[in-house]
Amino acid sequence: MARRIVLASSNPAKREQLRWLLDGLDLRPVSGPAVEVPEDAPDLAGNAALKALASSAEGLAIASDGGLEVPALAGLWDPLRTHRQGQARLRELAAGLADRRVAWAEAVAIAECGELLASWTCRGTEGLLAPEPWPEPRAFWVWDIFLFPALGKTWAQLTPEEREHVDLTWTSLRREVQAFFLHW
Length: 184
Prior knowledge:
By secondary structure, this protein is of the alpha/beta class. Helices cover 31% and strands 28% of the residues.
């Protein structure tokens, strides 16, 4: 019988990404109750660990925390606070920005019964800030403004096959998570 694992996120798009990481494993991903966790760790891995630990009281939990890196806005834009700063703040900072290069970093943590089992942080997905106007923010708003110029598509417009080729961050995390559970 497949083991239950809590997807420690209230964001539907993030839950789908976590489910994708676990696809094919002998695990039964379930949405857990919303747990408010202060995201005040010094890095993405720390925030992911806080979320996983908070949802692991009764068994396995997996959580993540990600951030948009905008090198031209170093010191003004904090990837650790992407969600809290929001699209409106990024729009304000990026107005007239010549260097629109961006990258995505994501951390994933797995915990069980209040003990952190593993965590990883990956980077590598690179693109550009899409030109304005940007659509109204949704749950995973970065996907609507993260452009892959070679494909002429935003992250949200990618097919699953395209995503596996250009989304190096989540693809790397999937390999790590899959290897962890296959040898666990």
